[in-house]
Automatic annotation (TrEMBL), chains A, B:
<dbReference type="InterPro" id="IPR045088">
    <property type="entry name" value="ALAT1/2-like"/>
</dbReference>
<feature type="domain" description="Aminotransferase class I/classII large">
    <location>
        <begin position="84"/>
        <end position="447"/>
    </location>
</feature>
<dbReference type="InterPro" id="IPR015424">
    <property type="entry name" value="PyrdxlP-dep_Trfase"/>
</dbReference>
<keyword id="KW-0808">Transferase</keyword>
<keyword id="KW-0032">Aminotransferase</keyword>
<dbReference type="Pfam" id="PF00155">
    <property type="entry name" value="Aminotran_1_2"/>
</dbReference>
<keyword id="KW-0663">Pyridoxal phosphate</keyword>
<comment type="similarity">
    <text>Belongs to the class-I pyridoxal-phosphate-dependent aminotransferase family. Alanine aminotransferase subfamily.</text>
</comment>
<dbReference type="InterPro" id="IPR015421">
    <property type="entry name" value="PyrdxlP-dep_Trfase_major"/>
</dbReference>
<dbReference type="GO" id="GO:0030170">
    <property type="term" value="F:pyridoxal phosphate binding"/>
</dbReference>
<protein>
    <recommendedName>
        <fullName>alanine transaminase</fullName>
        <ecNumber>2.6.1.2</ecNumber>
    </recommendedName>
</protein>
<dbReference type="InterPro" id="IPR004839">
    <property type="entry name" value="Aminotransferase_I/II_large"/>
</dbReference>
<dbReference type="GO" id="GO:0042853">
    <property type="term" value="P:L-alanine catabolic process"/>
</dbReference>
<dbReference type="GO" id="GO:0004021">
    <property type="term" value="F:L-alanine:2-oxoglutarate aminotransferase activity"/>
</dbReference>
<comment type="subunit">
    <text>Homodimer.</text>
</comment>
<dbReference type="InterPro" id="IPR015422">
    <property type="entry name" value="PyrdxlP-dep_Trfase_small"/>
</dbReference>
<comment type="pathway">
    <text>Amino-acid degradation; L-alanine degradation via transaminase pathway; pyruvate from L-alanine: step 1/1.</text>
</comment>
Length: 459, 459
């Protein structure tokens, strides 16, 4: 009996990422190293995605201690954990029904929505946030995916479109699976991956020929670009979606890690509120954040939220119903809770732990900056623009070829730009700098050596 | 701007469960108790779903110690955890990239597929299991939902149908969201919720008038019924799906907890293999299991798997692609790993921990049985059949009315049978016995007292 005919065509349209082949190649190489095969390197370093804990970033002790104590409550009743940790764990444990093994309510553990809205009100300096507009998720991808599932019409005619930035991770696949289509708009690589409203207008015009564009998706701070939008740029975006009657999906997952002088994060919600009428009452904004990125980097734990602003209450009821179909992992919510409510100066035992907390903060701040500086400086020395010239001359060579050869010869795994939606002929690689300074040193050493040889071989 | 028109009609069709209203009522009651309002009870007891840790079941120490140590690796390097725990945690931590914060590979952490297939080969006494046929999931609902998403055609005409047992939890909603439709088949409440092939044939005939039925969904051991199928019954089912060219979805989530004399779990995969040709080569079987149920009861952690048997390899490639869109929580996988590989006699330090392990096993075994015995005995004394008579006379009274009144007057939350798909006029309540003996005693005390009064008031 042939069941192949049964497969949903939407699933067939999900694009296999080239990074997948590189990861398989990396697994094979690691296996060979384990079996004693001689290589010019001892281990594979994978900086092809933002997976900071895998490349040396240390998790936040306080959060890990709290979560471990919730998992194994004997730690609360002993002297094996600091007092703050035990108190926080005890409160959380009561809140989740006494065990991390309890099913979470479909709206999240009881305090979760309030925690998020309190955090948002603090962050946005008083712009109000109602807990009823908060939806707890598995993380950013999950929130975005659910929203799309809800907004895509069943009949699929005309096709629903979402304006989506290029470069961006796993470009379009979430859209494809939900039955929508990604309409690419291109960030300006010559200007630090800035977003131009003219490009949005161009993308929207072309979209209207093939689909019904309903939303604009922005990622700020940019992933993987690191670009941070100015308030003026955000106001332009808001006017654009207002005039074009588009929903605004803002991925603000990286709000805690900004690199570069003078960079400051402002949320879309704050800018929208401060623009006043007619924008602040009309623009439907969905904003996502999670514990997977930022100073937590807890990608393996799955905790995030989505806030809806100016959405019709009846739509939110439908959304609640959809979100209730898949339960929420407890541990990710605990991580999110600690992220939203870190130990603060003035709390009874803050003095005792200030050192650790400061240390963690400084560490994350400093290595990020250092890593970036290193990166810029080394790339400068390599005159990386030459690679582009070579690639353009040898058009048969794709970015994947470069990445695969780099991995085989040096054990360094980076991501080909085409996986991020970048068009043919632009030849980019992406490497994630969220790693330790030591690792970054080694990454750049391997890349530098390989690249010089590559230029010799192909020039 | 009205966005309501945008909502996916599939989402609108998701049925709100009445249990939701009861949970909100319970939250309100708990709030009132907290504010000092006098009630004839001190706390709400919620046995409306299988959430054993919430009602007193103790988690398995070994598994919790291992997970806590992976979360906070300082525990591995100290003497705060037993040696076995530290060794197991160390191995797992290496396997997941050094931190539970690392993103999991989309096929699960590296050892996971092999762990599952080794477990299945042992469990099924040699019937082979290939790791390539294993897919790691968030839990049973997730595996089932993804499979449906993959198998539902984009055009939705004719509607794809799945034969689904009644009673069963969250009946049909997962199907609705994926664009399929649930075709109910009724289990025989008069015979311990047995499954009759004649009823399947009736359901299939009626289904073919309105949709294209592609699969039969069975839950064995039954949830919420507890019924365990005999080998003969399973063989009948296999012949039925073979003849009718249906896929077989087997939810085998409760394989570790069987209550009743002479009950024995055999997997559908084993029965299928032992039936031989033509069945064993042709019937496409999807079987799911998770750490949410059974002796772990870790519903909050989200770890499960799905095994495909006799599926077309090209379908499995598509499935891999779909599953890769949503990452997997690490902690759930750790729980699953420990569940599949508990400490065994013969392992170097088994003697040291045998006591704990035996204790845990005995506890789970004994209180389940005791709880059931209590339950049967108490219901006997209440002559519960009288309730049905009352309900039938007072047809305006739905099961929800009984549940809501029970909750208000006694603080006991149970689930109305209509939430499980049971038809109007049959009036069932469901209470989950996966709780401690003490809690079950209290549950039955409250139910008994209420029920007597209820009979007086409404007879």
């Amino acid at each position: 009996m042939s069941q192949h005919r049964l497969v949903n065509p939407l699933v067939r349209n999900i694009r296999a990422l080239k990074r997948g082949a590189l990861v398989r190649q990396a697994v094979r190489i690691e296996e060979e190293i384990k079996q004693g095969m001689k290589k010019p390197y001892n281990e594979v370093i994978d900086v092809s995605r933002d997976n900071p804990h895998a490349t040396g970033m240390k998790p936040m002790s306080f959060s890990r201690q709290v979560i471990a104590s919730c998992i194994y409550p004997e730690l609360i009743d002993s002297d094996k954990m600091p007092l703050d940790v035990r108190e926080r764990a005890k409160t959380l444990l009561e809140c989740i029904g006494g065990s991390v093994g309890c099913y979470s309510d479909t709206i999240g553990i009881p305090i979760m929505r309030d925690s998020v809205s309190d955090f948002l009100t603090r962050r946005d300096e008083g712009v109000p946030s109602a807990s009823g507009n908060i939806f707890i998720t598995h993380g950013s991808d999950h929130g975005f995916g659910l929203l799309l599932t809800m907004l895509v019409r069943g009949d699929r005619s005309p096709l629903v479109g979402v304006l989506t930035p290029v470069p961006s991770q796993d470009f379009g696949n979430a859209l494809v699976a939900s039955g929508a289509t990604a309409v690419p708009y291109y960030l300006d690589g010559q200007q630090g991956w800035r977003l131009h409203t003219e490009e949005l207008q161009r993308a929207l015009r072309s979209a209207r020929e093939v689909c019904d564009p309903i939303a604009l998706y922005v990622i700020n701070p940019g992933d993987p670009t690191g670009h941070v939008q100015s308030r003026e740029s955000m106001e332009e975006i808001i006017r654009f979606v207002y005039e074009e009657k588009l929903l605004l999906f803002a991925n603000e997952d990286h709000q805690d890690i900004l690199i570069g002088e003078g960079c400051m994060f402002i949320s879309y919600k704050k800018v929208l509120a401060e623009m006043g009428s007619p924008f602040s009452d009309a623009v439907e904004l969905a904003s996502i954040h999670s514990a997977s990125k930022g100073f937590m980097g807890e990608g393996g734990l799955h905790g995030g939220y989505l806030e809806l602003v100016n959405f019709d209450p009846s739509v939110q009821i439908e959304f609640d119903r959809l979100i209730s179909l898949l339960g929420l992992p407890i541990i990710g919510q605990l991580a999110l809770e600690v992220m939203l409510n870190p130990l603060q100066p003035g709390e009874p035992s803050y003095e005792q732990y200030q050192e650790k907390w400061d240390w963690a903060e400084q560490l994350y701040g400093s290595w990020l900056t250092m890593a970036l500086n290193l990166c810029v400086c080394r790339f400068g020395r390599l005159r990386i623009t030459h690679v582009l010239v070579i690639f353009q001359e040898e058009e048969k060579l794709p970015d994947f070829f470069y990445c695969s050869r780099l991995l085989e010869q040096t054990g360094l795994c980076v991501c080909p730009g085409s996986d991020l939606g970048l068009p043919e002929g632009t030849y980019h690689i992406r490497l994630c700098i969220m790693t330790s300074v030591d690792t970054m040193e080694e990454v750049l050493r391997r890349l530098g050596k390989f690249h010089k040889q590559f230029m010799k071989d192909f020039s």
